[in-house]
Design a protein that fits this description.
By secondary structure, the protein is of the alpha/beta class. The protein contains 14 helices and 8 strands. Strand 6, helix 13 and strand 7 (331-335) form a beta-alpha-beta unit. Helix 4 packs antiparallel against helix 5, helix 7 (128-138) runs antiparallel to helix 14 and helix 8 (169-182) runs parallel beside helix 9. The radius of gyration is 31 Å and the shape is elongated. It starts with a helix and ends with a helix. It binds guanosine-5'-diphosphate (GDP). Guanosine-5'-diphosphate is lined by residues 163, 165-171, 202, 248, 281, 309-310, 312, 335-338, 342.
């Protein structure tokens, strides 16, 4: 009898402790999502103090904030179709289209031009994204295809290549040289970026690889002197075309634009005429800053065409529309990778389809 009583008391004690423990568990703070309750140590389990929240909160907030961030160029087509949902276009639709284009680096002038043209031509049930792409391509319709220049009386054509460091100037010269050499033309390269340590060597590698004639001097030499010698060497050797690589950043007190103007003047003096072309290399990933670059280089050395590099990445290069509309500069070529063959003539239709995709 006594044993039964002891057993009942022990049993009741166990039940009591169990109920107490389960109350404790419901009162404990909920673990952060994704964390297990089992074996983690108290420091890991503890909710983050307020001061640490931004670190952990940022990635979670991203999807929610996405609509407020600049439109990803790759989503432009879907965004345009959403704006035109229902087929009818309201004033909000046109304003939304203009904003979406500006956010894709197209710039306000080109965006307004495209919207104006789409307003004229869009009729439901057309696909609005197709109409926008057609009108974007239309902005380049008058531009002739790029060709390497030739000088008067069979003299070498002279092309000055400008752009900020890292945009792809040297690589572009190498790619163009390879293409022209493949067509049987002779090419010269002037290493007038005498400021960047590796620039001359890099150009030398391209010259060797493509069978081009390189004119270079030691690092720190006068870029104008290299340019002058290169024109004279190209003429003496009857080369078809000379490409003059230039600095994108200086480590001296002379402003870059002043140095480039000087190179241009020297080329003019050496050849007896201004450079036949001045190509600005623009990196597609630069975004809206590209228009400032284009403006500065154009004011200094009168840019005649743009080479849009790094189109192989996610950037769609909407900036060239801004450059075309605001400065009247056409796109000559596009770079689509680091390889020697990754260069293509600018195809406005393909460009517009990729931008609006
Ligand atoms: P520079 O300073 O303007 O002469 O630029 P470089 O010619 O040295 O190029 C800078 C970097 O960009 C190098 O790593 C190149 O291989 C790379 N680059 C150049 N053009 C392209 C391109 O069209 N696509 C990609 N992905 N990389 C490129």
């Amino acid at each position: 009898m006594i044993e039964v009583a002891v057993f009942v008391v022990v049993l009741l004690a166990f039940i009591g402790v169990g109920i107490y423990l389960s109350t404790l568990r419901t009162r404990a703070p909920a673990p952060p999502p994704g964390e297990t309750t089992g074996s983690a140590s108290p420091t890991v389990e503890a909710p983050a103090p307020e001061s640490q929240k931004p670190e952990t909160a940022a990635p979670e907030l991203e999807p929610a904030e996405a609509p407020a961030r600049p439109v990803a160029p790759t989503g432009l087509g879907a965004r345009i179709r959403a704006l035109f949902a229902g087929g009818k276009a309201s004033p909000e639709t046109w304003a939304g289209l203009e904003e979406a284009l500006v956010r894709a680096d197209v710039g306000p002038t080109a965006a307004a031009a495209v919207v104006g043209r789409v307003r004229e031509h869009y009729r439901p049930p057309m696909d609005p994204a197709d109409v926008v792409a057609d009108e974007v391509a239309g902005l380049f319709a008058e531009d002739p295809a790029w060709e390497a220049p030739s000088g008067p009386d069979g003299r070498p054509g002279v092309v000055m290549i400008v752009g900020v460091n890292g945009t792809g100037k040297t690589t572009t010269i190498g790619k163009i040289a390879a293409r022209l050499r493949g067509e049987g033309r002779s090419v010269g390269m002037a290493a007038s970026d005498t400021f960047r340590a590796a620039a001359g060597e890099q150009l030398g590698v391209w010259a060797e690889r493509t069978g081009a004639t390189l004119v270079a001097q030691e690092r720190g030499a006068d870029p104008g002197a290299v340019a002058f010698d290169a024109v004279k060497a190209a003429e003496a050797r009857n080369l078809d075309v000379l490409f003059v690589d230039t600095a994108g950043r200086l480590h001296t007190r002379t402003p870059l634009m002043e140095e480039l103007k000087k190179v241009r003047r020297v080329l003019e003096k050496a050849a007896g005429r201004p450079p036949d072309q001045v190509l600005l290399v623009l990196d597609a990933t630069t975004g809206q800053n590209g228009i400032q670059q284009a403006r500065s280089f154009t004011e200094a050395v009168d840019v005649t065409g743009v080479v849009l590099t790094k189109l192989d990445g996610t950037a769609r290069g909407g900036i060239v529309l801004a450059v075309r509309e605001e400065l009247g500069i056409p796109v000559a070529l596009v770079g689509t990778g680091e390889g020697v063959g990754d260069l293509a003539p600018f195809d406005a239709t393909a460009f517009a389809r990729a931008l609006i995709a």
